[in-house]
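Researcher: Structure prediction, please.
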Amino acid sequence: MGRMCGGRRLRRCASTTFLLCLVAFVLGSMAVTVIKWRRTSTSLAYLSPAAGTSCSSCSCQCAVKPGHLPRPSDCRETDPNMKKVLQHRISLLKEEIDLRVTVARESLKRTETAIEMSKKTSARFQNEAAKCRICVETCEEVRERAEAELVEERRLTKLWEKRARKHGWTNNSIIYVQG
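Model: Predicted structure follows.
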């Protein structure tokens, strides 16, 4: 017997692909939100009055205008420790971004592979479905021909029976032919 024309495996593959895309979307959204939050909180940190109490004091001698708060960029240029810390943070952020890019590429590659597999499976099932349709159409044509031949055979049988009755044949006179 031929293969069954079912789609369980295709549905499972499609749902897995959808789940992977959904997870990638959620993780990406979370990462963007965290990055935006960090950027906003770090860019606004020097403006808040409590920033001076929560941050370590700047050890540099920054030229601060009266009525202005010192900005971290002012100290960064003259303080070597601050420069090292910022470079270290930047390198950590670059590593994290590189890692996220790598993870995203791998996830994309797995998703593309799953999509290709689902396309191939879909094409195979479509071919099987086309074969099934052709077989069903052929069977229907044969059935219709057989039905037409049966109607014709019954018509001929009635005609011969009518002729036989004209010549004296009755249902009681069945002749058995030995062979």
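Model: The helical segments are 8-44, 51-54, 72-78, 80-166.
Researcher: Thanks, that helps.
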